Structures are given as C-alpha cells and as structure tokens.
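FAQ: What does the model actually see?

It sees only this:
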Amino acid sequence: MVRALWTAASGMIGQQDSVDTIANNLANVNTTAYKTESNEFKSLLYQTIQTKTTTANGENKPVGAQVGLGVRTASVTSQFVQGTLVDSESDTAFAIDGKGFFAVEGEDGNTYYTRNGNFLFSVGVNNKMTLSNSDGLPVLNTAGKPITIPANYVSSEVVVDSDGQLWYPDDDGTLEEIAGMQIGVFQFQNPSGLEKMGDTLYAETAASGAALNEATNDNLSKSELYQGYLENSNVEVADEMVNLIIAQRAYEMNSKAVQTADTMMQEANELRR
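And it is asked to produce this:
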C-alpha cells in the first residue's frame, strides 16, 4: 500500500509536468516561430515479487511477478514542424520555409539560433545599419559576421532573395548585390537536441550536433527565405485542449489512487482494535 502511494504520487508529478508544458504551448500560441512541446514519459524501476514456483523443485515461473514503481518525465521535446507563413507589413520580416535556423550573436559573444525572423535595422558601429532581432542582437551572415549596410542606404529599399542575399538599387534602380551580406541559414542533425534559451533562441549542444551551414554544405536540402513574411507558431489549440483534458483526468485518477491507498492503510491500522 505504501508502494501504491509513491507510485500514484509519481503519476501526479508527471501529469503536472504535462499540464505545465501544455500551458506553455497555449501561452505561446501567438509567439512567432514558436515550436510546440510535448512530454515523453518513462516507467521507473520494477520490483520483483516472485520469479520461482512454490513447488519443491523451485523452478522459474514462465511469467514472473513484477510491480512497477511509477513514472517520470523523460524529456520535453520540441516539434519542429513547419508553421504557416503569414504576411507582414515589415520589410525586415523574414520567414524560413525549410529546416534552417537564423543565427544571432548573443551579448555573451556566443552564437544562438532562432526561427523567428522578425528583424529590423538599427544604427551600429560607425553609423552602419545592422540587421538585428527585436532584442538588438545582430543577425549573422554565412561567414558568422553581423550583417551591416552603409549608413547612406535606405533600409526599406533593401531586397532579400530566397537565398538570403541582400540587394540594393543603384542610381538607375537596378538591383546590385551587397557583397558578403547573405543571411546565414543553418541546420542541425537533431534539432530536438537544441537547448531552449528563451526569447525563441536555441543553443547548440552535443545532442543537437554542430550547426551545418547551408551556404557551404551541398548535402543539405536548402531552405527558402521569404521577405515580408513571418512564421506562425505551430501550436494546434484544439489538440492542446484535448491533451489538457487527458492530463487532468490522469491527474485525478492518480489522486484517487492516493486516496484509496490511504483508506486501505487506515483500515489495516484499525484491525488491531
């Protein structure tokens, strides 16, 4: 009966984790490029009650008696499914159609990755215009350097093609390539292994593998960039509400198991009276 208490308690903890994850998904339903997360569970150790027969020869039983000791959250996995692309009025809004990630330089000097292409130009060093995210972190090009344009350029006239290359019209209105200014797009062998840093940023880990540069790796299926579009969150509200109900019911059942085990212990204690 004590075993039942701890087993049911582990179930309540696991379902609470699931509810927390679902609540986070619903909270970010309108967050640009947010990827829905799901809990994965694993069973805990099993306690062997009996493996041998009760006969004199003591042979092993065809099927032993083992009792599980509950559940634990194994991982919270991000589902990197393509979100829908929606029109944006910003000229510096970019959406990725494919498996790629943008790269930005953090305040600590490290490189972080994101699917959120809600960028803007800001005045940087030497009055150059630097492409950055909403927090002011510079967006990196294919060489891992901040993307900048001369101070005399009008940011609204910058054109970005599907490969991420920046172009600017000359005096005759003909688009000319801005040398070395191609938005970097990177892929990972296991994007689910990326560490979530908040602000829709991810950090490279050993589990995710090293970032693969689409511009220099011909073995990758190239992503396409769309200027004037943003990627919506891929959270499906209906699915999340169903999952929320399931988690709630599972939590209630485990709490009922705790109450039942407590009642049985009370009955056992009263037998001595």
